[in-house]
Amino acid sequence: MTAATALSARAAGNPSFAVGGVLTLALLATAALSLAWTPLSPYVIDVPQKLQLPSARHWFGTDSLGRDVFSMLMVGAQNSILVGVIAVSVGLLLGTALGALAAAWRGWAEEAVMRLADFTFAFPAILLAIMFTAVLGPGIVNSIIAIGIFNVPIFARVARGSAKAIWQRDFVMAARAAGRTRLGITLVHILPNIFSVLVVQVTIQFANAILWEAALSYLGLGTQPPQPSWGRMLNDAQAQLFQAPWLALFPGFAILLAVLGLNLLGDGLRDLLDPRGTRRAMAAAPARR
Amino acid sequence: MPRTSYAIAALFAIALLPAAGQGEERKDTLVLGMVLEPPGLDPTTGAAAAIGEVTHYNIYEGLAKIAADGTVAPLLAESWTVSPDQKTYAFKLRPGVRFQNGEPFTAAAVKFTFERDAAEGSTNKEKAVYANIAAIETPDPLTVVLKLKQVNANLLFNLGENTGVILDPKSAATDATYPVGTGPFLFDNWVKGASITLAKWPGYRDAAAIKIERATFRIVNDPAAQVAGLLAGDIDAFPRFGAVDSLRQFQGDARFTVTIGSTEGKTIVSINNKRKPFDDVRVRRAIAAAIDRKAVIDGASNGLGVPIGSHYTPNDPFYIDLTGLSPYDPAKAKALLKEAGVSLPLKATLTLPPPPYARQGGQIVAAELAEIGIDARIEMVEWAQWLDGVYKNKNYDLTIISHVEPRDLAIYANPDYYFQYDSQDFRDIMEKVNTTADATGRGHWLEAAQRRLAEDAVNVFLYVLPQATVAKKGITGLWRNSPIFANDLAAVSWQ
User: Checking CA distances to B418, which of A5, A178, B19, B44 falls within 20 to 30 Å?
Assistant: First the structure.
């Protein structure tokens, strides 16, 4: 049995991965679909139709200005994914670079990177994000920057930790002895081996980014109207809590399912990509003739 | 065992004691909700309307009093006479009045206060009124004579506003943090961010008529929290209730009375008149034609609110209905933009402060502007940012705000005001308003002023900010309308 076959067999059997995968795919599919089609326009304001219960025309009802909630949820998924992808990418690229640098060069470089990470962690994240948007102005771009900045030290720490473990391995020491440069070793040996750890971290940070975007939009600092945003929909629903309590359910569940899906996916991936697990499965599977 | 049960019984008794006393105690205490926290407690130096809500008529008093219907009555001045040329006002002051710190109320206090209001560095919102006083004479401790530079037909109304309250010279410097006045309530406590408490002053000249012993103003910014506070019973009454959308459930509830009235709030879309292309009157008229007042009133204000066509409300003297000059006509709006040669889509920012009329109304306005080719990017800001960015630095294209000061046409005569409207024509009209002695003549000029603002489409005039008061059954004396933002607690009582 090859490693790949063993992996897919385990993947199907792993409930976290299965459920997480389905939810994440649903999120991506919704966002993709919303680019081409939504039942109604999420931008059309129709005040006489405000605060309607779910019906045949408005599948999830309407909000306080008469906009279709279902369509807003679909287009809101685009925003969540956009913020997630860009902010996490920024964190991944910059953070991994810094972390790998720290693990490779050690000494003052490592100290500098780690202290910078500590410094960023010392700030309550949400206050930093608020400060950013207060200075730079509210909007989706600035919230991406704020979230991206917070992802950098997280990836830096994870990358450094895993990279240091790889640096201790025999084949790396051999390569070092053979005269390879630190940069060469990092690119050829370190990065491929910490890849699985980073993938898992990406899914976790993606989930966090969705939560952060929702929090910033809830506060009015993130995505501005008329762009729909799950966080801002929650804020609007709060103002209508006594009139239309069901309004809060839909964006709330959307956020819940998206974050849950990504977290489960991350858990599942961690199980699957753990090298020990693969070797065990291969040993247990019957040998091919 | 018996000792434990005695202990439990005793604990129960102690726990129930406050509830037993609750019935009588509630009848003379009042918890009022308010939306914004005042930055200070001296209305002669601060511009926020919230200052007057707490202190006006409660802690401080002025020479005149504005009643709930907008009429002017004597307060600290017992009577007054006006010279035929309307430039000399002689006030007879009420005798035997003291400040809460024991100092006597005399003409000297009036002179001190008005001179302070007119002084070089004064931050009084109505400084122009006091700067217009050429001389203040105090022939005896109970007489004050004001000699004006120019006729001010609104002087008596101005003296009844919170900017005209009389301060004690000895405590004036600290009034912002520890207010001292001649009113029926003493300042008791201010828990920043939460509440301000006033206690009845037994030494007030008419203390027997004051039914409320203790009044707490609870600050609740969030509309949902306002609803929750009322339903839970924590708040007894909420004048100027913010969650207009949620009124229905209070109207159906027997425990509450809901009163709908009006304020002097002119809700407008302010346009930065010096910014291209908004300096072109055709563009401003296009924006006005693109906006459907009814849609904004329905969406932002739950259908409550009277449409207006200029910076004046139906409650003000010589009001004329100018809504017909700027009806909803998107086709006309597009034509005007074309005529002005504006390249579409025109990009603009729409800055929205926190209140629902701005946040909700702003989304409707942006959608309507998009229909005619104006891409209005919404920027939601907090009050501090609005005051700094829009009001002080005039760094905006469009914004939505409600001006609640009564009869404030004069702001359009100031080219440095944040609208940056610079019209000599309008200044001439206001000059005539200020100097015409007879009422009909002045009325003619007031109508001209309203018409000028409507024709020049300086801003888009939307509607009068309504006032909804939600109170527990049994509370009487709260104002239905707010000609000024005040809570006259002396008139309030539990039945």
Answer: B44
Angle at A142 between CA A141 and CA A145, to 5 degrees: 95
How many Cα atoms within 13 Å fall on the side-chain side of residue B375? 6
- Tell me the pTM: 0.80
CA distance B353 to chain A (A): 11
Chain B partners within 8 Å of A48 (Cβ): 298
Phi, psi dihedrals of residue B62, rounded to the nearest 5°:
-115, -175
Residue by residue, pLDDT tens for chain A (289 residues) are 576 676 677 777 788 899 999 999 999 999 999 999 999 999 989 888 888 999 999 999 999 899 999 999 999 999 999 999 999 999 999 999 999 999 988 889 899 999 999 988 888 877 888 788 778 888 889 889 989 988 999 999 999 999 989 888 898 889 888 888 888 888 888 888 888 899 999 999 999 999 999 999 998 888 888 899 999 999 888 888 877 888 999 999 999 999 999 999 999 988 888 766 555 555 655 555 4
| Integer Cα distance of B316 and B447 in angstroms | 11
Our CA-based measurement puts residue B68 at a distance from the nearest CA of chain A, in whole angstroms, of: 30
User: Which residues in B lie closer than 8 A to residue A226 (C-beta atoms)?
Assistant: 363, 366-367, 378
Contact B360 A65 (CB under 8 A): yes
> Nearest chain B Cα to A221, which residue?
B380
Cβ-Cβ contacts under 8 Å for A60 (sequence gap 6 or more):
A54, A68, A69, A70, A73, A250
Q: Which residue of B has its CA nearest to A237?
A: B224
